[in-house]
Amino acid sequence: MSVRVRPTHCGLDAAVEIISGKWKVVILWALSGEPRRFGELRRLIPGVSEKVLIQHLRELEADGIVSRRAFDGSTMRVEYALTTRGIALNDALKPLGAWGREYLPERAIPIPENG
Asked: Chain centroid to CA 106: how far?
């Protein structure tokens, strides 16, 4: 299933291994409401390069967190969505986001309420 080969020592280590990467948590947040096309994700996550977004989506797909669905047609259309495992991971991250909003100093960039 996963492309990762590093052994983990506890559940938290395994979870952190899956969400490691600058944009993965933001990708999970962007997919939390509904499936999104690649272009939508690019607009929702300003600052991420196309290359890195593709790489992170592939890793999340390999880890069973995100599903990729391609549609046939005159133009190639691909949608990304959270899997059941991805929804559970997002739910597990919500208390961490609440902790961050409460304990970290305010930043110039607003943090989404559900993130």
From this structure: 23
* Confidence grade of residue 1 (pLDDT, cut at 50, 70, 90): very low
DSSP 58-85: HHHHHTTSEEEEEE-SSS-EEEEEE-HH
Structure tokens given for 86: 């991805």
The predicted model scores a pTM of 0.80
Compute the distance between CA of residue 79 and CA of residue 21 in angstroms, rounded to an integer.
21
Q: Which residue, chain included where needed, has tokens 């961490």?
A: 96
| CB of 108 closer than 8 Å to CB of 34 | no
Tens of pLDDT, residues 84-94: 999 999 999 99
